[in-house]
Amino acid sequence: MAVTMADITHLRKMSGAGMMDCKKALEEANNDFDKAMEIIRKKGQAVAAKRSDREASEGCVLATENGDFAAVVALKCETDFVAKNADFVALTQDILNAAMSNKPATKEELLKMALSDGRSIENHITDRVGVTGEKMELGEYEYVKGASTVSYIHPGNKLAAIVAFNQGLDHQVAREIAMQVAAMNPVAVTPADVPQHVLDTEKQIARDKALEAGKPENLLDRIAEGALQKFYKENTLLQQEYVKDAKLTVEQYLQQQDKGLTVTAFKRVTLNVD
């Protein structure tokens, strides 16, 4: 049975593969669409294995929110050319939509979820590898939950942030905080949320610098504590200077909106080098 253009078009819509790849797969599979899909998938797996040592440093980062849940995903590839391809961006959007609909707890759970055609996200990514010849992977999946959430995608789809709040608030105010997270890259919401190993590292750096500068050893702890306070102001979200008004901290800006308003969580995902 001859392979028709309608068959090729149908398989192309199913797989995203090129016309010639679809034609060859259908011929090899004797027009069996399931077998043809498997042939295309195996090609993707073979390419993925060959390129496993390549660095996937480009890609697409998308985020969105719906009420009390916000998510961000990063689908990674090797080149900016592929990252800007409409089909690649559409797949990233489909993955984000699946995350929003199913609210998986981990990236591994998300990869196993099916898209509208019944195939798993993992298989869709593998199929795209066969189409583009580039390494691809779901690099990041993060989410936040709260009384209210917001998302922000920086132009270019390389950086996004999501933020959760303890109560409802004006959308533009929420968006300003997400933009703050994207721009200033805080490590935690408050000093109490900073991981202990980060604090230990910052203290040690301050002590080492003080010693090199010839400061007395009995002053090192005080100097380290002073450095830590500076670190908090620069790196914890609520203590950071608000980017649109340096006279205010982020916490003060939020309290201008409502005395009880605060951030409960945030996530920031970027493909750029910070």
Characterization of the model:
- The radius of gyration is 24 Å and the shape is elongated.
- The protein has helices spanning 5-15, 19-28, 33-50, 80-83, 86-102, 107-112, 121-132, 171-184, 196-212, 220-235, 250-257; strands at 58-66, 69-77, 137-145, 148-153, 159-165, 241-242, 245-249, 263-270.
- Strand 4 and strand 5 form a beta hairpin.
- The longest helix has 18 residues, at 33-50.
- The protein folds into 3 domains: 5-50, Ubiquitin-associated (UBA) domain (Helicase, Ruva Protein, domain 3, Orthogonal Bundle), CATH 1.10.8.10; 58-181 and 265-270, Tetrahydropterin Synthase, Chain A (2-Layer Sandwich); 191-264, GTP Cyclohydrolase I, Chain A, domain 1.
- It starts with a helix and ends with a strand.
- Helix 1 (5-15) packs across helix 2 (19-28) and helix 3 packs across helix 7.
- The chain is α+β, with helices and mostly antiparallel strands.
- The chain has 11 helices and 8 strands.
- The strands form 3 sheets. Strands 1-2-3 form a 3-stranded antiparallel β-sheet. The protein has a 3-stranded antiparallel β-sheet with strand order 4-5-8.
